[in-house]
Design goal:
single chain; binds S-adenosyl-L-homocysteine; Rossmann fold; five-stranded mixed β-sheet; seven-stranded mixed β-sheet; binds N,N-dimethyl-L-histidine; globular; 352 residues; alpha/beta; 14 strands
Length: 352
Amino acid sequence: MARRRPLRRSGEKRHAVPYLARPPTAAVVSLDARAAALDELREGLARSPREIACKYLYDDRGSQLFEDITRLDEYFPTRTERGLLEQRGVEIVAAAGGAQVADVVELGSGAASKTVALLDAALQAGGRPRYVAVDISAHALQRTREILTAARPEVPVEPVLADYTRELHLPPKPEGSRRLALFLGGTIGNEEDAPAVRFLSRVRAHMEPLDFLLLGANLVTDPAAIHLAYNDPQGVTAEFNRNLLRNVNALAGSSFVPEDFDHHAPYVVEKRRIEMWLVARRALEIDLGSIGGKVRMRKGEGIRTEISRRFVRDDVLRIIDAAGFTPERWFESPDGRFGLALGKVRSSLRGF
Ligand code: SAH
Ligand code: AVI
């Protein structure tokens, strides 16, 4: 599509978070957040089995490694979702309000390369969308800004550096506009049902009647293909997984040695999910730095670092319904591997 002349509303603030010349390595964004992160890490590492939340995968290097993963032949979700957004973007935006969609808010935006298709659809509908990118990673937000500014200079970008599992502050909606919240990439599958519904309910609290949510979800497909997507022979996903320990070390001054751990990512058929683990190659004693204390691990003991669920359509519709969105439309890739649910804000919440 031809580029349009930059449109900017007068007096508009472009960035919710001022951009620093060199953005911080931002797994955490404040002292309070650091204390909360240390508590969360302590609690997760004391669990059986041990766990470290997947948001710690995304320091600067982790965000870059994720972008590398999305370009691997084996990792099909990104290109499947991109194809779906490109094919059905116009329909999606039309169903969400067409030209009135003036506030596109993406949670966990990453490099946001796929989002251009939706912004284009809003521009084509005659709208003037603003794009609000929320991410825990300053590196990801920087990439969002680079990609979007180069691709669609007419779309103002407002980056919000935030952990969306905690308090969520969004810039107010432009007067009279409709908000379209995006949660793409299948990231909803990185949570169990209850926290997924809690999170989407909090997003819903930032929305009004006539606003919409577009939720992307990985669907159940061939287990071998799913397995390969998380076990690429080049070892990029293994490096992404191990890098989480570098991020924890930087945050807490802990003494994890990433090379002491094997990447283990089986597709657990009965749970319909990939489980990503770091498994100790030998008996280890790890000093936890500011987290406090030490962890002793036996050879073969694991730390779970991520779940990545596969859904069927009704699972996804049930989740958005429970979070206060009435399912309006369902879009599925021709190969049935990826689905997008469009939900409209409902005024009453239903529990899960
Ligand atoms: N939506 C993009 C990126 C998916 S990767 C895509 O579809 O390709 C997940 C993204 O969510 C990363 O950019 C990561 O930094 C961000 N993220 C993960 N946990 C987060 C959290 N708790 N708060 C904010 N952003 C988070
Ligand atoms: C961000 N999230 C949806 C990705 C996934 O597939 O669950 C993260 C990822 N983990 C390993 N590879 C990619």
